[in-house]
Amino acid sequence: MVLAWMCPNDALVSPVCHVPREVMTAVLKVHPELSDDRLLKLFESGVERQWSGELLQWTEPETWDRVSLQALGALLTPVYLGEQTAMLGVSMVLPKLALAHDTEATLYLSTMGLDEARHFRNLSHLYQALDMKPWATRQVPEMWRYHTRLMKSGDPIDWLWGILISDLFARLFYGRLRDQYPDRIVGRLARRTLVDEARHQAFADLYLSPRLRHISQERRDALLNLRDDLFRTMDQLTVRLAGPLDDLGWSGQAFLEELWDDTEHWAERLGLVVPSKPPVPVPAAVTD
Ligand SMILES: [Fe+2]
Ligand SMILES: [Fe+2]
Hints:
Layout: H1 2-6, H2 21-27, H3 37-48, H4 66-99, H5 103-129, H6 141-151, H7 156-180, H8 185-212, H9 217-240, H10 242-247, H11 252-269
Helix pairs in contact: 3-5, 3-8, 4-5, 4-6, 4-7, 5-8, 6-9, 7-8, 7-9, 7-11, 9-11
The structure holds fe (ii) ion (2 copies).
């Protein structure tokens, strides 16, 4: 992926892309300085806390009624796509951080790519293990708009801000699954995934905080527009998923309100809007 991003457009159709030496020397440093201790600590945490989906005891017998299973399959669809988008987005942003010589961030993002690949793989396994199906594209067109919007600019700051909102969405969703089904596969999967997602939020905090405090008002407005676009899409998605939400006893409105509050707290914490409440604490899972 790194090399593909560096290829000129016409070279992408070729099985072999010649990367000019000047590009490689601009990206690579033989012995880069690694001085951001907080990002390095997060990277070490990302390395130490890798885990395999095999730990989830997939074969444990479970009883689900058909309605709940269909609802779960539908509601997991946006999260499932979000995990894939996050995995691909990491590979899109990673070479840009390398080009900017943000070496510590590049290191950390490499662990995040593996996290998102694991989440994607685990959800694929879950669909198979519980014999359920995600919704098709035509059933939730808003979902595709959401993820297309997220990937649109390709700028690391835009992407990280958008993926933070997507991670907050995933955190709410996994949190409900963990609380509602603590002893089932979905609950175990959600509990472990939440630890990874907390790390991703900590990275968003470390990477975005210093950069967003010095951006222009125009750039700030563009990021808030991105937030609003994502929320409009989420709102439509919640209407479309009203049936499955109801089947699991979840309120779409409460979900959206909670997500909005979380996002607002982060917008304040990162300096995008004027704070009205104390800052959101960094998730406990990554501060120890
Ligand atoms: Fe994830
Ligand atoms: Fe994530």
